[in-house]
Structures are given as C-alpha cells and as structure tokens.
Amino acid sequence: MDEKNRPASAFPAPHMGEPYLLTPGPLTTSYEVKQAMLKDWGSWDGDFRAMTASLCTKLLAIAGDDGTEYDCVPMQGSGTFAVEAMLGSLLGPNSKTLVLVNGAYGKRIAETLRYLGRNHLVIDKGDYMPPRGVEVAAALAGDSEITHVVLVHCETSSGILNPVREISEIVAAAGRKLLIDSMSAFGALPLDVRDIKYEAMISSANKCIEGVPGFGFIIARKSELEAAKGNSHSLSLDVHAQWANFKKTGQWRFTPPTHAVAAFMTALEMHEAEGGAPARLARYERNRDVMVAGMRDLGFETLLKDRWLSPIIVTFFNPAHPNFSFPLFYDLMKAKGFIIYPGKLTVVDSFRIGCIGRLDEQVMRKVVTAARESLAEMNVDSASPPDAALKERARLAA
Questions:
Q1: What is the enclosing helix (H) or strand (E) of 49?
Q2: Which residues have CB under 8 Å from 62's CB, separation 6+?
Q3: Residue 398's pLDDT is what?
C-alpha cells in the first residue's frame, strides 16, 4: 500500500503543531490531557483529595491489587525523585542490596545508594546485556547478607526489556525482596502483583500512562510501607511519612503538582478506554514493529536482537557513512516533525527512537519516511553501521 492510500492516524497530530516526542518520556500527550491542566485546584480541597484517592485506586488496579495488600504513594518531582524516595525509605540502614545494572538507569540506582550510604553490590552487564536468573541466584547463594535486589524493568539507555519474571522468581525462591524500577514500562508491560513477585515498584506520570511530568508513584506492600518508618534520609522524600499523611488526611504533605495530577486523571481515563495495559502494549508493539521494519529497510541496524527489543524505545547504530552526522540528522528529523533521542552507549555511536505516547503505526511510517528523506539530504546512500557495531552486537546472548 503506498503512503497516500494508507489510513490516517487514529490520533490527531499535536494540536499546536509541535514535533512528536519520540522519547521514553516526556512524550506526546493528547489534547484532552493538555486541556485538563487549564483548571486550577486547591491542594487541600476535598475535590482534589478525592482526585488523589481515585488516582491511587486506579494505579493499584493496573498493578492487580484492590488496596488489600499493596498501597500507592504519589511523590512530587521527576521519576528520579521517586526512585530515590523508594530506595531511601524501603532500604533500611541494615539492608544490603544487589543492584542489577545494564545501562544508565541501573548505574543511577547504584549511585543513589552510594549517596545514601546504603550497603550494596552490583552485577554490571555493561551497556545492554540482560541480567539472568542464574547469576542472580549465584550471587544470592554466595552472600546471605543480601536482603534486596533492585532491577530496572526497561533500561531505556539501550531499549532492552529485562527479564523481570525470571528475576522475580529467583529472588522469591531465595527469600529476598525485589524492588523494580518500572519507570518507562508500567501501564503497558505486565507487572501484575498476582503474577510477578515484588515488594515495590516505581513509575512516573509521563510514561506509558501518557500524562505530563510532575510526579512519580510507588506501589508497595503495606507491610513494607509500615516497616519503612524512620528509614528515610530525607524529609521531603520520606515515603512512609507521605503514606501516613495520605492515610490520615488524604492530602499530600507538601504542595502537590495539581495540574499534572489533573492531567494524569484524564490520561488514566483514556488508558482505561483504550483497553488498559494490554491494549496499550499492543499499540506500542505495533509502533515498534512498523518503525523497526522500516528503518531496517533503509539499512539501519538495531543494537538488540528481536528477543530483547522493548516496545518502549529502540536503539539504532549510527551509519558508518562519512557524511552521516547525528546532530544534523537530529535537526533534519525535528524539522520534519519528530524529536528523537541521542544514544547512551559507550562503545559505539547510536541514537534512539521511542515508540510510546499518543501516536500509532501511521505516525511511525511517517518517521521512517522522514528518516529516508533526511539521509538523502545528507547525501548518505547507506545507513549500514560500522563493523565494530556489528561485532559489539554479536556479544548479546541469543
């Protein structure tokens, strides 16, 4: 089917004509989500307190709990604020944590624990190799002092989808506790507490639920929240204190991001109307498949083999062609309506294209067309990567 005869996108283009954000969040949001921020809310008012309570109930439902065993604690700030809040509150002074690292965000977790002075050790798989259950089992068997394991669900520095179920089963079998950074995955990828064993997870408003930045949220067992009293290194990032205040008053302890919360409520309604996490995952997977197939047709190569490609963001190697310049490619893509992401690999040059946000496969076909036109404008007739990139990819486990 030629481009002009393809069906139109199911979603309107950005209302103000801004470029699509092909990043793992912030991302392109619907006009309805943006409209929700036009109303002011009193942070102590009953209507806003009811909104916060509904937000938590809906998030718990996505996680597969009705509030019986788990609870939801929103926290002001970026996703990293929520990560630090979870780590600083749920990991007590006598804890010892195994951090599974295969990218920038796993490294950030380890760095946070260094700042917090929490005892930890690291399994570092490099830029993108997945942590596997057998090596986690060996580490836990070899060190009885390890109390917790922390894993990034989708490591967006490479785009790899880590084997959460595999790791959760190993950790549970060893009698330890799993904390999951599901920042860029929750709301699309499965993370049901009835199916995957974990003590707590964190995510953010501006990811797969398709809200705007302003707060993150921790979903944790109530027993873990109760045990967190007195652990936190920080007044403002104390998850137990925030949780206790919600239970007592229904209010955030400090000024909440009222407009971001209102936008998130609209995003949650749209998430539910679409069919919840399964439907959103299906759309993101289709976005990925259409975009990856088109980019490969142009000669681009993905960092990861298909088994490990997440539906969140995909990493491509830079072409070896001497005329290719990523800064110029970025500018040309932006001029055509698409903001892409620089790469974070240390060994080879790369860039990333996100699959999430208020967009569908028809938009992704336009992304491929824009890439083709941009290469032509750069006089790049081959998008094939250098041999070093392919050798690096060959290291990835089958």
A1: helix 46-62
A2: 186, 187, 271, 276, 277
A3: 46
